[in-house]
Design brief:
This protein has nine helices and 14 strands. The protein is of the alpha/beta class. The radius of gyration is 24 Å and the shape is elongated.
């Protein structure tokens, strides 16, 4: 009689530890690779690593959902009602995270709104692309393709092109040259180092190379109206540019002037009758729309408590777009990226 000796199986704890080491090594390699060319604020390297770690670590939500679903099934079969309910709740939470990280940011939608007929034009308003840490080249190309399919007279970009992008801005924004519509742009706070690295001059050059017209501090015709571009409020560009523009003679009355700027709070700088509409972004519409919490945060995020849509102020009408990109957290939830097509 022979005795067959079986090699003992590795303890489950050892297998889990080995898997964790492999996962951390892969995530670390991805984060390290991504961080090599990030143009961030001086001394902000650690926060960049944290942001990129979160960006890549959220891929783990998919296996986590599978494990939670299996746990829910086992608990249900064992008639453990409380454990089953907890597992279902955990699965729902994971599903929301998966949706906000991987699905909704890629569901670029177009929303049409008629603001008036004084200008006789249709424009596509976009804002807050935030090309960099979370918004990548594929997202930029998706935006370009969608804009090229629209029947509009011009594309207006209300700032925040960047979010700690690569150093080579000219290459990063080169695809914009493929836009078939005239594209007019102002800068946002992230473009003017509020916060962000000192990339303003390089960004102007990169946009010009891609045939995007920067109109900060300028006025130019838009249909039967005049379009006025103002830079970012937090960087105090809007204040200085508006003061300079007010010294210039213009044959256009306020009813036929439209202001393009980044921050909707710029509206408080405008005298009554200065313009009919102010078009802006900045708020992302909250980006992550949670009951009560998001509304409370947005109420304090801007002086006017702006979120998205139309606001009829005493001195000017304001339209706020929810933007197309993401910052801070790599999530969009119940606020899909949006191109607003506006009838002016």
């Amino acid at each position: 009689m022979s005795i067959v000796l079986q090699k003992p199986r590795a303890p489950a704890r050892g297998r889990w530890l080995a898997s964790a080491v492999v996962i951390l090594a892969v995530l670390g390699a991805l984060v390290w690779h991504d961080s090599q060319d990030v143009w961030s604020e001086p001394g902000d390297g650690r926060r960049v690593l944290v942001k990129l770690s979160l960006y890549w670590a959220l891929w783990l939500v998919w296996p986590l959902m599978g494990w939670v679903a299996l746990s829910a099934l086992r608990s249900w079969r064992a008639r453990h009602v409380v454990a089953s309910a907890a597992a279902v709740l955990a699965f729902a939470l994971c599903a929301c995270v998966a949706w906000g990280r991987f699905i909704e940011p890629n569901t670029l939608q177009v929303h049409e709104t008629t603001l008036g007929t004084a200008c006789g034009v249709r424009v596509a308003l976009v804002s807050d692309l935030h090309l960099g840490l979370y918004t990548r080249q594929a997202d930029l190309q998706r935006l370009i393709d969608r804009l090229n399919g629209l029947q509009v007279d011009a594309v207006l970009v209300a700032g925040d092109w960047t979010y700690e992008p690569s150093y080579d801005l000219r290459t990063a924004f080169a695809p914009l040259a493929g836009l078939r519509h005239r594209t007019l742009s102002v800068l946002g706070n992230h473009d003017e180092q509020k916060p962000g690295p000192p990339l303003k001059a390089e960004l102007f050059a990169a946009l010009a190379a891609a045939k995007v017209e920067s109109i900060d501090g300028r006025r130019l015709p838009l249909g039967r109206c005049e379009l006025e571009g103002l830079g970012d409020l937090n960087a105090r560009s809007a204040q200085h540019q508006l003061k300079a523009l007010n010294t210039q003679a213009s044959d256009v009355d306020g009813a036929h002037r439209v202001v393009l700027t980044h921050n909707p709070d710029t509206s408080f700088l405008l005298a009554p009758g200065h313009a009919s509409w102010l078009l802006s972004g900045h708020t992302h519409g909250g980006q992550i729309n949670l009951p009560i919490l998001t509304a409370s945060l947005l109420a304090r995020a801007t002086q006017g408590g702006f979120a998205q849509g139309i606001y009829n102020m005493k001195n000017v009408h304001v339209f706020v777009t929810s933007g197309v990109g993401i910052d801070k957290l790599p999530l969009r939830f119940r606020v899909p990226p949006t191109i607003d097509v506006l009838g002016l």
